[in-house]
Specification:
Elements (H helix, E strand, L loop, with lengths): L1 H9 L1 H20 L9 H7 L5 H9 L15 H16 L1 H9 L1 H31 L10 H28 L4 H11 L2 H12 E2 L2 E2 L1 H26 L1 E8 L2 E3 L2 E3 L3 E7 L6 H20 L9 H10 L8 H26 L2 H10 L2 E2 L7 H32 L10 H31 L1
Antiparallel strand pairs: 1-2, 3-6, 3-7, 4-5
Helix pairs in contact: 1-17, 2-8, 5-6, 5-7, 5-12, 6-7, 7-8, 7-12, 8-9, 9-17, 10-11, 11-17, 12-13, 12-14, 13-14, 14-16, 15-16, 16-17
């Protein structure tokens, strides 16, 4: 990875992309400290003293922007939710399904446009939720229609600007823009985590041996977790394919042996991000219509506590267990959904058959499709369960005295985005290498 970064920096075109990406990241981090107009910072500090539940999740991926009530407070969570909505609608609306599968470049542009429209609608709803949720806490200097309009407009504009930043990074920079924004938001909390671990070792009473053991345990656990994530993300099942020889004109074509690389986790970290957004969405809607919901009882209060149990430790063991089970099932479900959305066994089988290929021991056509489907089902189940276990591990640690904020979900996202970015860098370098060779 470090060799790739060095080679990328030595290549002028790739270096420009890297510098452009760093510039946009800097703009994102500066925007995280630009507070929305009309906010009382003293009252805000008191209201944001505890960022748990949905607030904690948004604050995590926004790089602390939510706790500062900045213009980027909502981060790109509306875009993530909009992507889920559009992809689910594509499964039930024939016209959207045709655009997704057969529309080509024009179809992708239309899907992207629909996603942006849904994003703005959801951003407006979420901004209203935030305003009405924090209005009773006297966070705003002059609460009223004009202040509310200014706050909502600022939050929606911030999300729209982040969408634009993500597109610019994807097209003119390095890596996937949306994933990169999430990555930067998460790793921005590393310095505070380091300070916390330092305070565990060196307390007011002096050096703490127990604190040192806890810190070493956290570091070793994190390293093992990262190694496991890298292994699973990079592991693949190679399905052998043989192509028979055939005469094309005066040349003999084919006859080579190759393989189909099937990764254990084709969906990457997207199932975890989707499941987290899906679980916290009910809490967002309930907060909009019911004030002080956390202190009330009843069905809506129970649904709210169940929804925020993914990232909150103050909802009770019953809600946490139920949430963990549903969260696990959602991650596995989204893993299957995302895998089959990107890999179609029937289409792959037809392409192999058209090119005169076959899998040894398997007949071409329907048997090949069934064979590939069987393999995909097995490895997707393993990959989905692995993602789910890593994601709910921090929830299990809440029942111990160990409190870790930088948990499994964060490590999954960080490692996944870093691996994807390094692969794109390698692809850029390879393309420049072959281009220079041909010239």
């Amino acid at each position: 990875m470090f060799k790739t970064l060095v080679n990328a920096w030595k290549t002028p075109e790739v270096r420009k992309r890297l510098l452009y990406t760093l510039l946009l990241i800097l703009i994102f981090r500066l925007g995280c400290y630009l507070t929305v107009p009309g906010v009382d910072m003293v009252a805000l500090s008191s209201a944001m003293s505890s960022t748990e539940g949905i607030s904690g999740f948004i604050n995590l991926i926004s790089g602390g922007a939510f706790s500062r009530f900045s213009v980027f407070a909502m981060s790109i969570t509306p875009y993530i939710t909009a992507s889920i909505v559009v992809q689910l609608l594509a499964m039930i609306i024939p016209s959207l399904e045709r655009l997704t599968k057969e529309g080509g470049e024009e179809g992708r542009r239309k899907i992207n446009r629909y996603t942006k429209i849904v994003t703005l609608v959801l951003a407006l709803v979420e901004a209203l939720v935030i305003y009405f949720s924090y209005k009773p806490a006297n966070v705003f200097v002059h609460p009223g229609f004009l202040t509310g309009f200014l706050v909502v407009l600022s939050l929606v504009a911030g999300t729209a600007f982040l969408m634009w930043l993500g597109e610019q990074i994807s097209s003119r920079g390095i890596g996937n823009g949306i994933s990169m924004i999430i990555l930067i938001g998460i790793i921005s909390g590393l310095p505070s985590a380091i300070v916390t671990m330092w305070k565990l070792m060196f307390t007011t009473a002096g050096f703490s041996t127990v604190g040192l053991i806890v810190v070493l345990g956290v570091i070793i656990g994190a390293l093992l977790l990262i190694a496991g994530v890298v292994f699973v993300q990079q592991a693949e099942r190679r399905v052998p394919v043989q192509y028979s020889k055939r005469v094309v004109g005066r040349k003999m074509m084919g006859g080579q042996n190759t393989h189909i690389p099937l990764k254990l986790v084709m969906a990457g970290v997207m199932p975890v991000i989707f499941a987290s957004s899906f679980m916290t969405f009910p809490a967002m809607i309930i907060q909009m219509f019911v004030s002080d919901i956390a202190t009330k009882t009843g069905f809506l209060a129970g649904l709210y506590k169940f929804s925020i149990a993914t990232s909150s430790s103050n909802v009770g063991i019953g809600y946490s267990i139920a949430n963990a089970i549903v969260y696990l099932l959602l991650i596995v479900g989204f893993t299957y959904f995302y895998t089959y959305a990107t890999f179609n066994p029937a289409e792959v089988s037809n392409n192999i058959k058209k090119n005169g290929g076959f899998i040894p021991g398997i007949r071409a056509g329907k048997p090949t499709t069934e064979y590939l489907t069987s393999i995909i089902s097995k490895i997707t189940l393993f990959g989905g369960v692995f993602l789910a276990v890593i994601a709910i591990l921090p929830m299990l640690l809440r029942f111990t005295s160990l409190n870790i904020t930088f948990g499994g979900t964060s490590i999954l996202i960080v490692v996944g985005v870093v691996l994807e970015t390094v692969q794109q860098l390698e692809a850029q370098l390879s393309m420049r290498h072959y281009k220079g060779f041909l010239e």
